[in-house]
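R.M. (postdoc): so does anyone remember the format we settled on? I'll just put the structure tokens first.
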């Protein structure tokens, strides 16, 4: 693997972007000890060989295809094992990065496609278009990692959503009637505790919050398509027993009352 490295000029404009690349390249790793970490987010992808180190106070092995993520200013040390440890690496930051990366450092599996996504960034022309195009590609890159590789308890976002497919279908079909957490968990073939964990991972919300969104979506459709149906009846047909609670949740989600929404659409 040919070693490469690029240090783009990180201007004040770049630092205002949601995502920007600070450094990017490939190398044969050596022993690294950074007691105070570095100021940017960091990703290392093992292309060949293996390495070992300490992450979050735990000893870890970095094997081919593994993704090693570190937040800013995070103490870490790592070193190559035999054979030589070859990586593709990137440091990055931005105003929106924290919304798509894990809360803590760790080693994540399933990064086999990362090299392909990484190469798309590496081959970009190093000219005046770099900041704009690399920002877009970095966002796509991190989003793909978030849904396919970054995981909680060994489960990725995509895996969690797949496990919830039966529950989501059940909720969509029955959103107009009262539903219990137990019924939804049964549809997903998991416990209520597992159901809540999977919803948090896949959708960043609780099951009942997801159900409220389904009901609000149903209400919005009825408000615009069935204009003769009174607002209170729309709420009831959408699954809300209380007109006041329907109005409260609708305003919370849409920033306006059901009546105001109907007048707009």
């Amino acid at each position: 693997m040919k070693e490469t490295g690029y240090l783009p000029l990180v201007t004040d404009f770049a630092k205002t972007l949601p995502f920007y690349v600070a450094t990017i390249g490939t190398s044969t790793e050596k022993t690294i000890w950074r007691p105070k970490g570095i100021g940017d987010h960091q990703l290392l992808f093992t292309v060949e060989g293996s390495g070992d180190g300490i992450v979050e106070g735990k000893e870890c092995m970095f094997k081919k295809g593994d993704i090693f993520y570190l937040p800013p200013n995070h103490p870490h040390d790592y070193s190559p094992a035999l054979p030589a440890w070859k990586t593709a690496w990137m440091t990055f930051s931005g105003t929106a990065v924290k919304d798509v990366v894990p809360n803590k450092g760790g080693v994540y599996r399933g990064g086999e496609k990362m090299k392909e996504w990484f190469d798309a960034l590496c081959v970009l022309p190093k000219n005046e278009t770099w900041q704009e195009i690399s920002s877009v590609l970095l966002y796509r890159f991190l989003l793909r990692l978030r849904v396919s590789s970054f995981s909680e308890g060994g489960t990725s976002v995509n895996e969690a959503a797949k496990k919830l497919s039966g529950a989501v279908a059940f909720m969509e079909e029955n959103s107009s009637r009262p539903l219990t957490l137990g019924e939804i968990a049964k549809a997903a073939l998991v416990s209520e505790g597992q159901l809540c964990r999977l919803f948090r991972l896949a959708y960043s919300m609780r099951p009942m919050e997801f159900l409220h969104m389904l009901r609000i979506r149903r209400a919005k459709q009825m408000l615009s398509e069935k204009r003769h149906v009174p607002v209170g009846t729309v709420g009831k047909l959408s699954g809300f027993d209380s007109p006041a609670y329907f109005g409260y949740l609708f305003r919370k989600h849409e920033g306006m009352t059901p009546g105001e929404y109907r007048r707009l659409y």
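R.M.: ...and that's the designed sequence above, right after the tokens. Also worth knowing: Residues 76 and 241 are 53 Å apart (CA to CA). Residues 4-152 form a domain with the Jelly Rolls fold (CATH 2.60.120.280).
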